[in-house]
Specification:
The protein contains 8 helices and no strands. The protein has 108 residues and is mostly helical.
Length: 108
């Protein structure tokens, strides 16, 4: 299962931001190490490649990395706890406003 998400993360990474992050950190960290480590973290911790740089995983120990709510963790969390019938109402902002208006606004 992790392998599927690993490839999903590879296909959907924001490579413009990834390369920007690599360029910013290359003075302090090996580019090769950051790339291989980000791939490893994606597979092992379920982090997206963007998570790797957003959470500064290249500066974290294995123990610290395991404490983060990575993209895969959050996906599984939301999938388990969200009622599937409400997902279309949450994904669409107009449907969300209409359905939850009285729950989020003092003016109904």
């Amino acid at each position: 299962m992790k392998l599927v998400y690993f490839f999903y993360f590879l296909l959907n990474a924001d490579y413009k931001k990834v390369w920007q992050s690599i360029r910013q950190q290359r003075k302090n960290h090996s580019v090769f190490k950051m790339i291989t480590d980000s791939l490893w973290c994606s597979f092992y911790y379920g982090s997206s490649i963007n998570d790797y740089f957003n959470f500064l995983f290249f500066e974290k120990s294995k123990e610290e990395r395991s404490e983060f709510a990575t993209t895969l963790f959050m996906y599984k969390f939301h999938k388990k706890l969200n009622n599937k019938k409400f997902i279309p109402k949450i994904d669409d902002k107009n449907k969300f406003r209409k359905y939850f208006k009285c729950k989020v606004s003092p003016r109904c």
